[in-house]
Amino acid sequence: MTSSITARAASAGLTLDPATGPAANYVPFVREGNLLYISGQISRYNGQPAYLGRLGDNISDDEGTRAARQSALGVVAQIVAATGDRLDRVAQVVRLNVFIASTAEFSGQSAVANGASDVMVQIFGEAGRHARSAVGVASLPAGVAVEVEAVIALTDA
To answer: Which CATH class is domain 5-154?
Structure first.
């Protein structure tokens, strides 16, 4: 078994960028007991917001799914920062909240959110299976199409 989250991601063909800092007056994650709360992560490429727009408007379903994957990789980067890149510290991905900027007529939020869910299972296996909400919203920070936040249960190791 691979001992680092980064190595596990790489073996799944996924690339993690370094964790980003907060964009305003908050912290990227908070640990309370064995729970790690990760602030919303937007889709980024090379540190810049990516997939700008709304589903049902100028972002296709496939692009939305890719945006969800990128946002989830941002969540994973925060897990790496919080755990020292130790895979054995992640007991369970407890919950994902996936926010999708979409038109009032768009109803495929759940399918788009699968992009984020798939990343968690690819990297963490059974421990990556989680509860989830997929919510359509009018807009998101920096004009991105998807934002993902998470709750992670950590081990005592």
So the answer is: alpha beta
